[in-house]
Amino acid sequence: MLEAALNLMRKKGPEGLTFAALSAACGLSPSTLVQRFETKSRLIQAALLQAWDRLDRLTAELAAATPKTPAGAVALLVGLSGDYGGIESYADDLLILREDLRDPILRARGAAWRDVLSAALEERFTRVPAASAGIGLMMAAQWQGALLWWSFDPRMPVTDFVKQSLERFITAFAAGRETHSS
Question: Of 17, 49, 126, 180, which one has the greatest count of Cβ atoms within 10 A?
């Protein structure tokens, strides 16, 4: 039911998610849905909390499966990028992100995920001499920026664009460390 709600939001935007539309999509009566969620805001929140749960699981799986190296950090973020698909689904997800930003509980989930992701990325630089504290958050920010820049000119697959961008970031980071250590 919550997956159907999320799919409706992706297709029609958050405004298109109604109890009647969800009823048609999942087969439960609108009154049952109202009884369960009470308000549209709570329905949206429940669907997005489930989406955050899925993102948490994917992040944990990728963190466990990728090496603790800078290349592993790139692989982790490229793996997360594959979930975006094409430009239309990415744009739809940005519309849904607005709902995450409006709701304090969902914002807190985003902040918690940022911390987990940043820590997982940071772990991939522990073997790098003189690794900068905060590289995990910097790399996550670079990744988010790469996704946004890709969206303006999506001629190549998002995963290719992200990989190239993150590899350039690591190269620049390494060059900056060498300059400061000389």
Answer: 17
Q: Which residues contact 135 (CB under 8 A, 6 or more apart)?
A: 121, 122, 125, 173
pLDDT digits (tens, 9 = 90+) for 37-70: 999 999 999 999 999 999 999 999 999 999 999 9
The dihedrals phi and psi of 130, each to the nearest 5 degrees, come to 55, 35
Q: 67 with 124: CB under 8 angstroms?
A: yes
> Can you give the residue range of the structural domain that contains 78?
52-181
Residue 162 has pLDDT above 60, yes or no: yes
pTM metric for this prediction: 0.88
Q: Is the dihedral of CA 148, 90, 163, 174 positive or negative?
A: positive
What total number of domains does the chain contain?
1
d(CA 169, CA 182): 20
Instruction: Report H helices in 13-157.
Output: 19-26, 30-37, 40-65, 70-81, 87-102, 104-123, 135-152
Q: Is residue 83 part of a domain?
A: yes
* 108 found inside a domain: yes
**Residue at 127: amino acid letter:** R
Distance CA(47)–CA(53), nearest Å, equals: 10
